[in-house]
Design goal:
mainly beta; about 45% strand; 3 helices; Neuraminidase; five-stranded mixed beta sheet
Length: about 325
């Protein structure tokens, strides 16, 4: 029995490097099913009921499952079709969430703020870190993640550095990372190495220290980060189901963004080579109990999302006749 069958779920994940969104499910006989579509520089994912939100180069897409309950399409039990697109411009969107009121909020990394969709403009700013004095298209702190609480409120955000100058975060990648309490509007943890993908799960705050290859928990009261697992790759994306966390691993780039980080020494001391793929970590033990390795032209992944109760998902793309011929009548 595969792990996906055990937890009764499927996965989707993105690679902005290759411009692909992948769906990982299972056939009726238990074999893995892989389905992919092309979407230019796709990054952040968000699952809400039967909706799938995807950030691409200059658009934010809303896909909706068009199958009725119990219906199948070529043995797929979920078929996501594009229903709406917002042309935001290239904001470098890193995380997407939904508020308690149903509003879509995203991390606007280029302008160092959280933003909401709006009809008349590229975005509407809803919050910015206390150290950001002005909204400008300068990626000042590399704000890259937001955690929402169970009530649908933005609770914590991560940034690579508390910088207020254009591209200033690049000079403090090794130990300038911060976690910000959005409600209190103050930094609750610092000294982190490229923190990423904060998530609140079962009342605890989880995140990555990507610069150290570390996945763990953060205590907002003390600011202490507790490592759960070291993973041999640059960590991003984080999703949970039952007692498991799923994350993406990427190979380090040969440029100054990824150079000189602690993960290099940890890989060398453990005798490991960096990997690209998915990792499933058991929260109870810290063991990496399942993984998918990806080799070839794809060397960087971004986000990952779980699709509970879905066996074999698919999506309608923009280059085949399906987008013309798959039609659903509303009620």
């Amino acid at each position: 029995m595969t792990w996906l069958e055990e937890v009764d779920a499927s996965l989707c994940f993105t690679t902005y490097q290759a411009g692909k969104i992948f769906f990982l499910g299972r056939h009726a006989d238990g074999r893995l099913s892989v389905f992919e579509r092309t979407l230019e520089r796709c990054m952040a994912l968000h699952v809400r009921d039967r909706e799938l939100w995807v950030a691409s180069l200059y658009q934010l897409w809303r896909f909706v499952d068009v199958l009725e309950t119990g219906q199948h399409y070529q043995d797929h039990d979920r078929l996501y079709a594009p229903r709406q697109s917002w042309v935001t411009g290239d904001l470098d969107i890193h995380d997407i969430h939904t508020t308690a009121e149903g509003e879509t909020v995203f991390v606007n990394t280029l302008f160092s703020c959280l933003s909401a969709l709006t009809e008349a403009a590229s975005f509407r700013p809803v919050w910015q870190p206390p150290f950001i004095t002005r909204l400008a298209a300068e990626d000042r702190c590399h704000l890259n993640g937001v955690a929402f609480d169970a009530a649908g409120r933005a609770a914590f955000a991560t940034a690579v550095a508390a910088s207020d100058v254009a591209d200033g975060w690049r000079d403090r990648r090794r130990d300038g990372g911060v976690v910000i309490d959005i409600v209190r509007n103050e930094i609750v943890a610092d000294g982190l190495s490229m923190p990423h993908s904060p998530r609140l799960y079962r009342g605890k705050l989880y995140l990555h220290e990507a610069g150290r290859g570390s996945f763990g928990r953060l205590d907002p009261g003390s600011g202490r980060f507790e490592e759960i697992a070291f993973c041999p790759g640059f960590l991003r994306g984080l999703s949970f189901i039952e007692d498991y966390a799923v994350m993406t691993l990427s190979l380090p780039r040969e440029n100054r963004t990824f150079a000189g980080l602690e993960i290099d020494g940890r890989l060398a001391s453990s005798g490991a080579m960096p990997r690209c793929g998915l990792a499933v970590v058991d929260l109870r033990t810290g063991d990496q109990v399942h993984w998918v390795r990806i080799e070839g032209v794809v060397s960087e992944l971004y986000d990952v999302a779980l699709l509970p109760g879905v066996r074999r998902p698919a999506a309608i793309g923009f280059k085949t006749d399906e987008i013309r011929r798959v039609i659903r009548i509303g009620t």
